[in-house]
Q: What sequence folds into this?
């Protein structure tokens, strides 16, 4: 196995190989697999080398080997990489095989990827291939590492709810997490006037537990009280009451609470829960015991008392077993350890291999010359020169005389005591460490004191000046022999104990992480120095120290306390791996958060059983060692006695009744399988657990959600049976409704294994009956998504419906005609010409429209009111004449024998073509702009000038070269070649159009003049455009009168806009309406499915919604309903236009069988655009009517109906938990049903605390759509381009912005601080919105704290950008790396407001206003902030030159920082490196920064500013 370590670089290389995306996670089970199945050293080497690369870890502590990499574009299965090394089965171990190294002393969780579970067995009736497809996703790494409370912790939590208990679990097994769960539960049920008090024995432990509680319980005020707060000056109730105002949890040492209760500053009945950390200390006169005396007094008197929760790793301290019962009586609690999940606990709390190593005690060691000099100075001290004696002599009071007499009789003053202590400690150090160490200790202690006196620094600030000066003068008399260099020290100068210690350290493995326990603080300081300079250890170990401190005011520093700037920093370095050998006193025994070690050395024998157990608990890595240095004179049996006593102690508080495997196997199940006749699927008793786990994993993909079911067992003793009967309750994730969350077994069993199978089976049956499984007994979620995931890009649809067939058949049958005047007007509104247009069908109302003659000339067509006339009143159709006037030269000749589909006639005159087209000879007097000139080929021209003759420089064309020049000639401008006058000239044509018109010269004798005004010819040229406009309006009317009849549209132009694709290039298109309709459809869908499926978890709802609103469903809806026949897709060009004749359509027949191709996205967009049009036409009711037409399979609800259903589905409450009262005030909305706000603020992890309530997921699903609707309604108020609307929505609702604003949105509460002189100062604490989310996930707390720290550093710059910058701060927001649950919380609250307010968008908009979302949006719009993402900017700019953009992101060593690694992104455009950027917390952020810089560089390189970019703003982003 040793050779396997050579594969470490290969494994790490797989994680970060050039050209591939790095692995996003190294999960706990990967290291566990390497350790269990290959080599612990390989696992350790992989970890250390991965850590040396400085990947950003996301686990609760960076030093644990259960590290997960946050660099995550795409998952890479690490176990498969390990398999390439091991050539063996890469399957990870089960959760119970995870090693305990993953836990620190307050580790309350473990990490496990979602694919560590084995998929369930095959269902009957399904092929293996079907199951393989169904469960394929189980083999993929999920997007996040999920943090779970362990089942034995949940067992202890459940026990704590039933009664007062003392949780007895070994060091490192996560007792604190039990306390966190219990505190969360208590906060949920106790009144706002109650306080929870957490007691710890030391200041360091108080500070640690305070950090843990603050990280996991953020919505309430939590305070810590320690001696340095000057509590001894708080002498009245008012001070305490002010300090504790709005405080819900207090962490303090035992003594502080005892004093507060003793003096009635804090009443016992004000406390709802007391947590006793290190509860084994509560005996005799311990402050914890005295606190419980007051507790018992209250209880005896019938007064309210708090609940009690004790935490301990060693209930027995001394060698007397009855101390266990003493502690239980003292704390009015029962000592409990896990029984149901005890094996899981034992797999975590593994014991080290214990070794006793002997050393020789020194005998007859002579004191050193330095020690002798110190002794002589002490002996020669003149007590009458001591400042204390001098002060007492100067004071003639009785008290001073007594104190003087006592000091003289005992020969004792503070200075003499310090001298004596220095001498005594030097002797002890000489015995323990050797003579060199004693001299070193004396020299350093004296040197630091003299330096402090000389510099008047803070080290000895509590000493009186006279005492310091007197002692300094005496210490200068000590003749100090400078210790020789340590390398020169002889064997007699170093003790055998140190030599044995060094020998044991050298025997340790290379990856050793160790703790050395030392009794005396001074010994710690000197021994750490020795090991740091010892030739054999200085290069191998990185040494740190940790000793206890007393921080209360007035405490004098001892002379012999060697200076240590920051002991806690060494502890932090030990946690993160910078220190690998920590020396400490007993302060490390109790509770301090120390990572797991593989070596613990007791330099001094433990004082008692408690110390032995707690020190041993520090060594909990696999194959760890506990080394006890024992003198050759120590009794050999002491350790064995302790071990035996511990086992007996555990036997007393653990239930030893374990069921044998034979008993489990002997039980036969009579539970009938679940069988589905329709499919043949069958689930039996033994399959239920694995299928239930698979179902739970499918419920959600959210981070930090514990989706594992767990089991609670109940044992009942039956008279006459030696084995108790066991029933089980399975507890399912909080994503499920409360009535499905706890399911009991149907019967009782003799084994827990079968009881849990029964409960799992009953749960699965209940889940099936609730409709959460399909008839194949598999989760519905994948079934919902199957259709949504498949969509072709283009579909074959029916040809567009033509109204002219119906019109053709109506001609000749109708007794009445429908007539409207059509006027051609100029820009001033003057009518150029007018014709009456008649149809045999109702003539649709047409809005006026523009016609574009050239770049500078346009006219307008106005359509008048419709009138109905008898058929016999119609005049001769003038359509052929108008067509002939404008189109003859294009070889489009009117057929006199056929009828035009549109009848046109002038209301003022008859127009016959043979009388007007080129029938008039040229008369100079008549030439002008009123008529056209036609050449001998009939081509029309505009007259420009008359020439009596043609002389140079004027000349004729080659075709007319033979014509005489001395006759009259005409200068003519050619009739334009364009046929499409509906659309303005394209940009590419503007240059040509603006040039001087091209003129030609024609002899007058070859020309003729029209005998009709040119405006009539114009009208004839515009007939194709006019017919097209009538055509599309007839289409719209047909659509409104058939498919959309139930909607009742009144605004027909809206419908025309909705069915016009951008490709058709009509005056308007559907894009803006599609943006609006998309939001409306999603909001209705979210509201409907949430109300219709009250039992469905958010994952199911999202899948249903995705299926309903997906483009694949909407495009099919368009085809199924026949909407495809009405969509305008082709652009009008008139290129091949021919007159429309009645006879042609009568012969053509129906066009139902004709087909055309259309993009499925276009089909889906038109559906959404019609929904948007319906909303604008008649509000939400019409929009809902439209939705029901296209999606009839859904049982749609109005908003009122959905709200009513959702409101009734939530249990009613008019009271909020005290912790959430400020949240309601913050959002500015008073809930009718307070439970809606409670649900919105409850993360699914909180189900461990509150099994009855619901979590935020369903409301967040709803609130996401509500927020989108609020934002879209504000955006719609501004007449913006579709692209800008999409960009604004993205900028307003992205998770980064919502998370940031949630950190800025705060409410202030009164908080009182008390100075050391007792003066109270009231301040305001600001609690941000996000802290009100209730959860019990330690990893969420860590993520929140990290985000809070980044926010504090960068908020000013982001606020400045949001308020004043011209560009949106994409990169800055990305750098915050705010977890998504921040924005999820806001959306869930918005969903709750929507339900409670009866679908009031105004109320929801008010919340968005208070949160700062709408002000931010309005500022962006008002100031024209550039919200286009830098990546899009770069892509657009490069795309204009057809250049490809490439992002290359990698992790590299940073030369400036040894061992540091950093993200870099290099951007190449057309293969050329444009920019390289380093730094960043994620790939997305560093790429965004690089893209922004590259865009600016590329823009400058091309010599254009952002405002001068040619057409960039016209590029549509799909």
A:
């Amino acid at each position: 196995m040793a050779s396997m370590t050579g594969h470490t670089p290969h494994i790490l290389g797989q994680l970060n190989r050039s050209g591939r995306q790095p692995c996003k996670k190294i999960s706990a089970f990967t290291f566990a697999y390497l350790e269990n199945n290959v080599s612990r050293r390989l696992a350790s080497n992989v970890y250390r080398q991965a850590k040396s690369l400085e990947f950003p870890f996301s686990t609760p502590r960076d030093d644990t080997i259960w590290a997960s990499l946050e660099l995550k574009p795409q998952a890479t299965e690490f176990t498969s990489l390990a398999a390439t090394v091991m050539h063996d089965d890469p399957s990870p171990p089960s959760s119970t095989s995870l090693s305990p190294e993953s836990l620190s002393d307050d580790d309350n969780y473990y990490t496990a990827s979602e694919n560590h579970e084995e998929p369930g067995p095959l269902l009957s009736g399904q092929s293996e291939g079907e199951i393989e497809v169904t469960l394929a996703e189980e083999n993929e790494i999920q997007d996040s590492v999920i943090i779970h409370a362990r089942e034995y912790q949940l067992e202890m939590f459940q026990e704590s709810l039933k009664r007062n208990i003392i949780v007895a679990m070994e060091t490192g097994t996560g007792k604190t997490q039990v306390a966190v769960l219990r505190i969360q539960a208590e906060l949920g049920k106790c009144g706002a006037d109650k306080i929870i008090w957490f007691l710890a024995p030391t200041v360091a432990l108080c500070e640690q537990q305070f950090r843990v509680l603050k990280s996991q319980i953020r919505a309430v005020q939590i305070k810590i009280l320690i001696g340095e707060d000057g509590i001894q000056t708080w002498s009245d109730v008012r001070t305490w009451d002010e300090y504790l105002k709005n405080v819900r949890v207090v962490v303090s040492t035992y003594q502080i609470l005892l004093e507060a209760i003793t003096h009635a500053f804090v009443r016992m009945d004000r406390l709802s829960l007391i947590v006793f950390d290190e509860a084994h200390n509560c005996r005799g006169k311990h402050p914890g015991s005295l606190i419980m005396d007051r507790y018992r007094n209250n209880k005896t008197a019938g007064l309210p008392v708090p609940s009690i929760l004790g935490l301990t790793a060693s209930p027995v301290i001394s060698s007397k077993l009855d101390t266990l019962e003493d502690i239980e009586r003292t704390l009015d609690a029962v000592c409990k350890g896990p029984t149901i999940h005890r094996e899981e606990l034992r797999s975590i709390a593994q014991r080290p291999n214990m070794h006793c190593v002997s050393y020789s005690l020194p005998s007859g060691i002579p004191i050193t010359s330095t020690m002798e000099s110190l002794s002589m100075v002490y002996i020669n001290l003149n007590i009458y020169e001591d400042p204390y004696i001098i002060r007492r002599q100067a004071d003639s009071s009785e008290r001073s005389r007594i104190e003087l007499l006592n000091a003289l009789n005992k020969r004792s003053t503070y200075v003499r005591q310090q001298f004596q202590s220095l001498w005594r400690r030097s002797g002890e150090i000489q015995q323990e460490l050797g003579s060199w160490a004693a001299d070193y200790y004396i020299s350093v202690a004296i040197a630091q004191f003299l330096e402090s006196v000389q510099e008047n620094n803070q080290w000895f600030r509590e000493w009186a000046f006279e005492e310091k000066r007197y002692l300094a003068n005496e210490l200068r008399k000590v003749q100090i022999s400078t210790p020789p260099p340590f390398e020169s020290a002889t064997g007699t100068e170093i003790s055998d104990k140190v030599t044995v210690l060094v020998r044991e350290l050298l025997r340790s493995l290379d990856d050793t992480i160790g703790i050395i326990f030392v009794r005396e603080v001074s010994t710690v300081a000197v021994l750490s120095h020795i090991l740091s300079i010892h030739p054999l250890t200085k290069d191998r170990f990185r040494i740190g120290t940790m000793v206890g401190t007393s921080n209360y005011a007035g405490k004098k520093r001892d002379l012999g306390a060697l200076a240590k700037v920051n002991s806690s920093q060494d502890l932090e370095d030990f946690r993160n791996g910078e220190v690998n050998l920590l020396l400490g006193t007993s302060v490390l025994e109790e509770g301090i958060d120390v990572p797991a070690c593989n070596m613990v050395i007791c330099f001094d024998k433990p004082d008692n059983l408690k110390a032995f157990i707690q020190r041993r608990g520090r060594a909990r890595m696999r194959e760890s060692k506990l080394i006890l240095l024992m003198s050759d004179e120590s009794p050999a049996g002491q350790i064995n006695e302790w071990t035996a006593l511990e086992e007996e102690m555990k036997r007393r508080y653990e239930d030893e009744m374990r069921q044998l495997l034979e008993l489990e196997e002997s039980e036969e199940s009579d539970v009938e399988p679940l069988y589905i006749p329709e499919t043949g699927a069958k689930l039996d008793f033994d399959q239920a657990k694995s299928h239930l786990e698979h179902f739970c994993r499918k419920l959600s993909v959210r981070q930090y959600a514990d989706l594992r079911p767990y089991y609670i067992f109940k044992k009942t003793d039956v008279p006459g049976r030696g084995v108790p009967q066991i029933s089980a309750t399975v507890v399912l994730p909080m994503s499920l409704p409360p009535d499905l969350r706890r399911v009991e077994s149907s019967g009782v069993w003799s084994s827990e294994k079968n009881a849990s199978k029964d409960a799992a089976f009953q749960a699965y049956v209940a889940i099936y009956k609730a409709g959460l499984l399909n008839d194949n007994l598999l989760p519905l979620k994948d079934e919902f998504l199957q259709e949504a995931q498949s969509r072709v890009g283009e579909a074959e649809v029916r040809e567009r419906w033509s109204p002219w067939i119906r019109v053709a058949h109506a001609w000749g049958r109708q007794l009445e005609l429908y007539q409207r005047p059509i006027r051609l007007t100029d820009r001033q509104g003057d009518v150029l010409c007018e014709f009456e247009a008649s149809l045999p069908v109702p003539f649709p109302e047409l809005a006026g429209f523009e016609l574009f003659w050239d770049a500078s000339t346009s006219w307008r067509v106005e359509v008048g009111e419709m009138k109905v006339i008898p058929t016999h009143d119609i005049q001769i159709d003038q359509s052929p004449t108008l067509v002939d006037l404008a189109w003859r030269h294009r070889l489009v000749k009117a057929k006199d024998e056929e009828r035009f589909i549109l009848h046109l006639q002038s209301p003022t005159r008859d127009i016959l073509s043979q009388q007007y087209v080129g029938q008039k000879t040229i008369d100079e007097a008549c030439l002008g702009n009123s008529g056209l000139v036609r050449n001998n080929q009939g081509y029309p021209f505009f007259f420009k000038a008359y020439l009596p003759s043609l002389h140079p420089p004027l000349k004729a064309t080659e075709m007319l070269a033979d014509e005489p020049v001395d006759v009259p000639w005409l200068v003519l401008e050619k009739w334009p070649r364009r046929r499409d006058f509906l659309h303005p000239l394209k940009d590419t044509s503007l240059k040509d159009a603006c040039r001087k018109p091209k003129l030609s010269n024609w002899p007058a004798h070859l020309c003729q003049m029209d005998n009709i005004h040119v405006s009539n010819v114009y009208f004839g040229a515009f007939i194709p455009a006019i017919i097209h406009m009538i055509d599309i309006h007839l289409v719209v009317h047909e659509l409104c009168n058939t498919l959309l009849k139930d909607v009742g549209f009144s605004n027909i132009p809206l419908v025309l806009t909705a069915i016009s694709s951008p490709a058709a290039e009509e005056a308007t298109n559907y894009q803006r309406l599609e943006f609006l309709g998309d939001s409306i459809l999603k909001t209705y869908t979210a509201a409907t499915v949430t109300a219709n499926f009250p039992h469905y978890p958010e994952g199911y709802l999202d899948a249903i919604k995705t299926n309903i609103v997906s483009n694949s469903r909407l495009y099919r809806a368009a085809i199924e309903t026949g909407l495809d026949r009405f969509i305008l897709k082709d652009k009008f060009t008139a290129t091949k236009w021919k007159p429309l004749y009645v006879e042609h359509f009568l012969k053509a027949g129906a066009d139902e069988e004709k087909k055309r191709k259309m993009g499925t996205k276009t089909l889906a967009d038109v559906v959404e655009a019609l929904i948007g049009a319906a909303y604008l036409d008649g509000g939400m009711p019409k929009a809902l009517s439209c939705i029901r037409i296209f999606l009839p399979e859904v049982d749609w609800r109005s908003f009122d109906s959905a709200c009513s259903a959702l409101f009734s589905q939530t249990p009613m409450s008019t009271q909020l938990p005290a912790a959430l009262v400020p949240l309601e005030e913050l959002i500015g909305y008073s809930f009718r049903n307070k439970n809606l706000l409670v649900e919105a603020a409850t993360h699914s992890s909180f189900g461990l605390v509150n099994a009855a309530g619901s979590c935020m997921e369903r409301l967040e699903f709803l609130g996401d759509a509500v927020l989108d609707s609020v934002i879209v309604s504000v955006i719609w108020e501004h007449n913006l381009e579709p692209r800008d609307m999409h960009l604004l929505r993205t900028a307003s609702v992205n998770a980064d912005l919502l998370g940031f604003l949630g950190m800025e949105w705060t409410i202030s509460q009164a908080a009182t601080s008390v100075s050391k002189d007792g003066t109270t100062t009231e301040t305001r604490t600001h609690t941000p919105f996000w802290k009100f989310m209730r959860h019990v996930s330690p990893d969420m707390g860590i993520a929140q704290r990290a985000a809070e720290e980044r926010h504090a550093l960068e908020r000013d710059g982001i606020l400045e950008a949001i308020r004043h910058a011209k560009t949106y701060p994409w990169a800055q927001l990305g750098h915050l790396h705010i977890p998504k649950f921040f924005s999820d919380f806001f959306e869930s609250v918005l969903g709750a407001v929507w339900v409670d307010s009866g679908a009031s968008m105004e109320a929801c908009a008010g919340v968005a206003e208070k949160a700062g979302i709408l002000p931010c949006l309005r500022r962006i719009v008002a100031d024209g902030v550039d919200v286009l993402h830098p990546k899009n900017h770069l892509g657009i700019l490069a795309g204009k030159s057809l250049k490809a953009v490439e992002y290359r992101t990698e992790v590299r060593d940073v030369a400036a920082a040894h061992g540091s690694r950093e993200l870099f992104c290099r951007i190449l455009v057309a293969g050329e490196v444009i920019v390289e950027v380093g730094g960043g917390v994620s790939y997305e952020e560093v790429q965004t920064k690089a893209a922004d810089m590259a865009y600016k560089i590329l823009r400058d390189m091309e010599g254009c500013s952002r405002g001068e970019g040619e057409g960039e703003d016209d590029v549509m982003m799909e």
